[in-house]
Structure formats: structure tokens, C-alpha cells
Predict the structure.
Amino acid sequence: MKQRYVYALAALLTVIGLAVFGYKWQALGFPLTENQETPVWTIESAISFEPGPGTIKVNQHIPTLTPGFRMLNENSVSRGYGFSVDYGSGGREAQWAIRRADGPQTIYYRISVFEDEKSEASDITPPYPPPPVINEPFKTAVDVIVADVEEQSADDATFTSELLRRMNDPSPNPNVELLLSDIGDDADFVDMITTMLAAAHIPARMVRGVELDGRQRHAGLVPWLEIYDGDRWRYFNPATGEEHLPQRFFVWWRGNEPLVTVEGGSNVQVGFAVQENHLDAVAIAKTQAAKQGGTLIEFSLYSLPIRTQAVYGVLLMIPIGALVMVIMRNIIGIDAFGTFMPVLIALAFRETKLIWGIVLFTLLVALGLSIRFLLERLRLLLVPRLSAVLIVVVMLMLLISLMSHRLGMETGLSVALFPMVIIAMTIERMSVVWEERGAADAMRAGGGSLLVAMAAYIFMGMSWLEHLFFTFPELLLVVLTFVLLAGRYTGYRLLELSRFKALTRN
Amino acid sequence: MFAAARKLRESGVLGLNERNAEFIMRLNPRRLYPRVDDKALTKELALAAGMAVPDLYGIIENQGDVRCFSDIVENLDSFVVKPAQGSGGDGILVVTGRSHRKRDSFRLSSGVLISKAEIAHHLSNIVSGQYSLSGNPDKALIEYCVRFDPIFADVSYQGVPDIRIIVYRGYPTMAMVRLPTRASDGKANLHQGAVGAGVDIALGETLTGVLNNNVVDDHPDTGALISGLNIPHWDFIMESAARGYEVTGLGYLGVDMVIDRVRGPLILEMNARPGLSIQIANCAGLANRVARIDAIHNEKANPAERARTARREFPADRQMRML
């Protein structure tokens, strides 16, 4: 009966632990390993203009839906301007306003984004476009081309591809030539294509964005074509008719409206600059979770002050040490002093590193033991004797530090952080066992403690494990599960197999 | 490895984890522990139940009482000092006599002389809790030093050989005799190097011994054959052990007895966490016998009946003895 409760509890804890872990890993993008860096692009637009005498209003389209990217943060730098963000037909629009300004003005808008394949541009279903008003003779040309393409296509997507293929034909037919005669740049071309698609009752719009590629002082805006096939928006290369988005294409705004309008200013120029940084994936996940209003991040250890974080980095490893302890004691069956003394010794090893830690520990305990036996002759009462051992241990540490310093071995100095109380207790316990059960037992238990401490140290020192538990403290529930199950483990301990060997002979 | 584990399982060997989880935690409620962990209380309860125990000369309850020590032992030549809450025989001092020239010098069972001041220091250590299970302040008992029956004289090296009986739900289940050796320093604890000899519960006759988990036929120091000794008063010993269940209420109990040449079998102490080496000494697992007791368990049976049942049910496998 109890067994079943334990299993149920273990299952529950595991499910909760793994569920939270999975959510944070998959949905919030917390990294499994340390120092996982994600490239982050900062794109900056600079609007410069000459102010007129009166009120100045600057309108700029800013990124709204960015397929393949997620926004980390954005800000604007503009001296003295009032700033607001509105939603327009093409997405978000930033608005700067000032009553009067002198001299050349520059307004910066900066956005930091990182790649995220899961970021889809979900958009509302657009209305059917009204039949465009086109003047003759272009109207006839458009009608003829649309009718031709319609015959050679199956759906909206193939229609678009075919249309673009024809419009880009190196040896165009007269109708196409007529239409192209009026085209200035790529944006005009895409604009005309959207008009033609509207004539064919296909919702379409121009997309303009920046191709992110390392560091660019002057990045150009690339126009792209987007059509709605009745189900979702699809992207087409206006120059080839192929359906795709350019590599690392960051969509800035949609529609044929100009990027920037400045009221009360002249000589407007807009420039783009791109910079690539590498940011810790944890930092990105943090900002991301904070933006999604997640309470999880509120309870994340990353929200603590840095110094407290460092403490918890170590503290969270103690359960790992305890787990090692449980396995060594209850499943393998190694003798050790105290319940958690080996874990504390392992913690001390963190300061000194393993080899030096073992040397120091053995040295201190051996010296301390011999002094403890000397004290035994003085017949001191328990607590004063323990205190005497403690003081001797501190003095021994001092001595070792001074000596190793004189010898030029700086590692000896780390002994100062060795927890002297633990050593004093170990010495006392060991001396009692030594007296009562003989040197062999004392050595065995002492060696067992050291062995368990070493194993605990090795596991507690795994930095990927530390990172994992620091980022996903809910995994402690899984550790708890293991400990609970070990608590109901009634099988033999490994060393019992040899202990009861005599009984297996029959 | 797994084959070895399966073989052990088949012969019904009990492991430490199973003992702790299935026996001690299930059958021994923690509130009853003081009855066995505090030897002064055990003695009191055993006396009240009409069982034979070594006489208590005095109790040192705090540092101040240590001074009373010489008054207590004024007219005694031999006595035992033990911590009331010690474990595994730790902290026990067996005084067998005094120096002829100086009455303030005591002779220990090992033959070593020890001064009164040294005993007083030992008492202080006991009182301050050095040997107690929890490290809490403790009491020191000064009691009758058993003059053990010559039956085990040939198979012990100094010290007091004792009889350990595991009592499961009131039924004596398995027994062994613990024989001190030179290595165990006169102590009767197997993990300190004493020899454990299995006992045929039905007859009260010793079987082969075990030393440091290995089967032995002779005592390592005296060279005498361990098996084939007939333990006197076996009937009474079995019944006393069974009565230990009524006294303590513990379902998984170790009863330690000694045979005094004058006073017969005496209860030395009882243990709520008896060890598992008894299985090696008897070349038999506890689990099978425990299962049998669960099957024939009778709540109303008195200690004498339970002892009789156990003697009937668990005769030693004679062939195994020949190994």
C-alpha cells in the first residue's frame, strides 16, 4: 500500500518536474547547455532631414510581423521629440513630433531581433481587393496579360509565379513592354504586380525588409511580394517568381506606402545599418519569457541578484551530492561518517580542487587525529575537547597555508576556505571509532567518506549539470523522485552480495 | 552480479535495505525505541516482567554524580560500566578486579590496570554523550559483572560471550552465540572481530561459526571446535527471548543474553536494529523463517508457547551443518 503511494508520488513529481522543464526548454527556449549563444541583430534606421519653420511630424513604419524573427527589444533615440506608436494599415507606425527644431535633425529607431523559426507571420484575412482603376492603354494590357496567365495557371500561387515569369521575361511581349515602360525601380515593379494581382482578384501586397548579413553600415531595403491564397500569406521573389523568402530576411513593413513621411521638414534621407551580436541564449529566453508575461521567469533564479545567483549555483548542487550519497550508501553500501558529511567535504573540495583537496583533507585529519589522541590523555570533557580540536584544526590550516606560501604553492592558500568545523567533527568521530572499533574500522569509514566525497565532488562539479539545475530548478523534483524510490529500495546493497557470499554456496 | 542477488533472494537472505524498510520501520514504532535504547529503562521493564537481569549497582546521571563513583564501587571487586544509550558495545568497561597493592587501581578484563581517575574520565565521557546514539547527554550504568558459565570457556578469548536471539513478532526466529576473540578485544560484536556461531534453535546446540563474514569451524585464538556445544537452560533462554516482545512491543527485536555461572541466563540488553550477520552464522536466511511465522502467527499465544512453536518449526538443517 505504502509502496503504491510512493510510486504515485514519484510519478507525480516526475511529471510536474519534466512538464515545467519541457515548457521552459521548448516554449521559452531556455538552453540546455551553458554558453549557448544566439546571434542577435540590431537594425537601426536613421531619418535625417532639414526642419522647416513650424511643427514637425515624422511618421515611420516599424516592424510588426516578422516571420523567422522575434523581437528582443526596440527603442528610439530622438532629442526633444514626443514619441508614440500607432497601428496603421501596413502594421505599426512610429510617430515623432516636435513643435520646432533647429539645424539638421536625425531620428534613430533601433530594434534587436533574433532568429526563431517558430515565429510565423500570422495575419488577418485581407478583404478582396477592389478592381483597380487603371487608365488606358494600360488597362487593356493588364486585362490581356491576366487573361493569358489565368489560362496557364491552376491557383493563386501558380498564377503569381506565371505572372512574375512573364513580367521578367528577357524578351517581353508588347503588352508587358508597355507596362514596364513606366517602371522606375524594383519597388515600382512590385507595386505594379500587386495592382495586376488585384485585377485578378488576388489579395497581394508589397513587403519591404532588410537582408541581415553580418555587419552592414548601409543596408538596402529589398522589396518582396506577398500574396494571400485564401489560407495564408505566401512570399514570392518578384525577380524570379519563385516562392521563398531571402535568407535572413527581416520584414520591416508592408504595403506601398513610403517608409517615412515628414511633415514640416525637407531633404529627408533614411539609412539602415545592421549589426550582428552574440548574446547568451539565457538572456534572450529571459526577455522573451518576461514579454510573454510569464510568471515563471519571476520565479526563475535569474531574477535574483548576481551574488545570490552564485550562491544558488552551488546550493542547487547539494541535492546532487545527496543523491550520490544515497546511491553510495543504500545501493552500493559504502560506510561513511555521518549522513551528509561527505557532501560537505565535497563542497570543500570545490575550493581546493580534487587532488589537492584530498591531500589537504587527509593531512589535516591525520594531524588532527594525532593531536586528538594527545588531548585524550588530558581527559577533557566532550564539548571543550571538541573545541580544542577545532582550534587545533584552525591552527593547522594556518600553518599549512603559511608553509605552502613559503614554498610558492598558492593552492595551499585555498585551505583557508576548508570548512574547519566539518574537519573537527570528522576527527572526533573518527577518533571515537578508532578507539572503540579499532584502526581498521576507522580507516574504512574514513576512506569510505573520502570515496563518497570524491564521487559527490565529481558530480557536483559538472558545469553542465550545474547550469541545467540552475536554469531548470524544477529538475530537483526528478532528483527527489529518485531519492524517494531509493528510500523504498529493499533489494540487496552491492557490497552485501560479497558479505553474504557464504550463503550463496548452497 | 544479478545472479548472485537472485541466489541470495532464493535462500531467503535479508538485506540491510529490506530490514530497515520492511521490518524496522513497519514493526518497530519509534516511540518504543527508548525502551531498548536506554538500558536503564530496559532493565526496569525487564525486572517488572519478572525477567532476570544483571544487578544494577548505581547510575551516574550527570557530571556531579561522577564523584559518587568510588562510593558505589566501595565494596565491589568486579563490575561493568556501560553507557545507558550506547550502541554496538561501545563505551563498555569491564572491571574484573583490583590491584593488590593499590585499591584505586582496577584491572580490566583485558588484564590492563586502570586508575580510578581514568574510570572517572570515562564516566564523564559517557555522561557527556560521547557513546550515545544521538550524541545527547547520557547516563552511565554500573552493574554486576557476569561470571560466565564455563560452557563457552574454550571458545572465547577473554570478555563475555553472549547469545543473540532475533525475535520476530514474539517468536524466536534465529539465534547465535557471539564469542569474543583477541581481535575483538574481548567484545562480543561481530563487526569488531568476534566469532558468531549459529545455534540450532530446536536443541540449543551450536553450529559452525562465522568470522568476518567467512565460515569457520574453530575459534581463531583457542583453536577449539565451535560446533556441537549444548547451551544450558535453552528452554528458559528461548522463553525469555520471546518475552522480550511483551516487554518492548517491538516486532523485530534482538535479545542479548549471557549465562552466569551462579544466576543462570540473564538479559543483557535488547536491540531494535539487530544486525544481519546472524544469517551467515546460521548459514540460513531470515526471510523464509519470517514468512513461516507470518503464516502460523497466533496473537494469543504466550511466550512459552511461542518459544515451543519456534523450536518445533526451525530445526537447523543438519546437512548444512556438515559444510
About this structure: Residues 160 and 468 of chain A are 49 Å apart (CA to CA). Residues 318-460 of chain A form one domain. Chain A has a mean pLDDT of 82. The interface with chain B takes residues 330, 333, 379, 381-383, 432, 436-438, 441, 487-494, 496-506 of chain A (CB under 8 Å).
